[in-house]
Design goal:
mainly alpha; single chain; about 290 residues; Endonuclease III, domain 1; three-stranded antiparallel β-sheet; Arc Repressor Mutant, subunit A; 2 domains
Length: about 290
Amino acid sequence: MPDLALPLAAWYRDNARDLPWRRAGFGAWGTLVSEFMLQQTPVSRVVPLLEAWLARWPTPGALATAAPADAVRQWANLGYPRRALWLHRAAVEIRDRHSGVVPRDVDDLLALTGIGDYTARAVAVFAYGDRHPVVDTNTRRVIARAVQGRSQPGPAAKRDLVDMAALLPDDVAESAVVNAAAMELGAVVCTARSPRCEVCPLADRCAWRAAGYPDTGDTRTKQARYEGSDRQARGAVLKVLRAATTHDLAADEVIGDWADPTQRDRAIDSLIADGLVEAIDGRLRLPR
């Protein structure tokens, strides 16, 4: 693999966005919450909700004592609301298994609810300064283009961690910088649809550019359209229940005017199955 670490790190130090989780003293709990929120969600939507979340629950123990319904309600419109439940469960596990301290060990982090390879390593690296490969969608795109000469990465795989590990310098502190730099480059320069190759610090060593920018195809799974989807119906149900802060609602009162009654009922059933909604004697509420 080409030596990408040095130009990546230099570019990052000059161009990194000022984001809350990159500031000194942000802490492991804040890092964990931010990583939950950032999954498939733009930074601009996350920042204000992250700050409100941490103001309300500044420690795992604080969140663990709250009702799951409070977490779902505070999640607001971030999308994929199961993440709120998973984060609540992880907070309970941190309180009960780790004395309220977010663990540092990757295996301990992986054992928490809702945490996978990316989030576990992101916390270990960005909160605790350890040396591990951290791979998100943006990182995978940078590696696909700069190293493999492909226009888009393939489906996520364990191999991605091996590829990123090969790019990391031996110096522990510098390896964290390179992890962050690859993610940042993919987010703001080496973007999926309109890469800005003219300002890329890897332009002179990018395999995709050297090959003439071939279209090698995109085999990643495409997300279904939101408009008219079951996801939209689920979001509408949760919006109504979040607003009902002090009482349950009769099931037929919850988006009763939805254009597709079958879809509405399917959305409610799926929310119940996911633990995001409770049904008691024909009435619905957030989990308690």
